[in-house]
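Many introductory courses stop at the sequence. We go one step further.
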Amino acid sequence: MLPLGQPPACAYPLFMPRLLDTPDELAPLQRELVGALAGVAERIKEALASDMPAVQRLVEHVEQYHGKMIRPTLVILSGLACHPSDVAKGQTAGLAGPAPLSPLTPAHTTIGAVVEMVHLATLIHDDVLDEADERRRALTVNRLTGNEAAVMLGDYLFSSAYRLCGQLGDAHATVRIGQTGMTLCAGELLQLHNRGNFSLDQRTYFELIDRKTASLIAVSCELGARASGADAEVYARMARFGSKLGTAFQIQDDLLDLGGDQSLVGKSLGKDAEKGKLTLPVIHHLQSSTPERRGKTLTMLSEGAPRALLAEALRSTDSIEHSRRVAEGLVQEARAQLEPLRPSHARQMLGAIAEAVLTRAH
């Protein structure tokens, strides 16, 4: 077993690379969002604290996994964009003014912490399944302490998330988080069932990523809007926004696994092909290839060819560009879900985050 070093300080960078130098009019919303995310991080720290030193050391190590904090960010922005009282008052959510306009409540902080803890648990379990060595530019829990401890730590995070969600006193939120947890696990089981299945079709692929990735992003947007008092039609719309966004996010993740810079991405790359997990560009390539080309690619997959070589093969069938176009279409569908919302800086930022999915390098 390797020693657990002291984890580096985490600044919880926001997933909005083009918005950190936004016009001055967005500065109040930016400050509010940063403050809200700090509250989420503190809530997570409190929820995971343990009186057992061995557990606490692992929890502190996982603190550096927070990364982009996109799910809590979406909880908060959805709450800011969907508060119905702002319409009645003729106000615009997310703007500073003489009186506090923020519809954020302690429930948003709790929901943000819950979805982030569920996400962290899935990362820990994914690293075990993928035998990954690096996450957020640090050693994974399974690499540090072994698979057994990593699995139990993931379960500890799941349990902590459900306990915290139960404190909301909102049966809808508790049920939806429970349903999403089941959906995540079912998606992982579906992926495990199809490992090495080189005949995987796109329909199954999209069902898989809808469960594994999009479902948690969708419920983040849904519960954030609902916690602000949005009606069922509005928070269902936000769930659709999150689902489209999450699917595009995963396709971009697949593309980064093939051609991303590991020093920027901050995790082990090339694991999809290595573990026999077919992603959209590979599926499209295999379906578009001649029998001879398909045979060569299958050989590359089975022999664990370098990801650069695989990416080169995928370009020959326009499969990488095809996947990018699919992601672009999903982002536009996601943004369309925002159009009926009143104009606000929060809505503007949600749209910008959707666009940033297509250009992210980490």
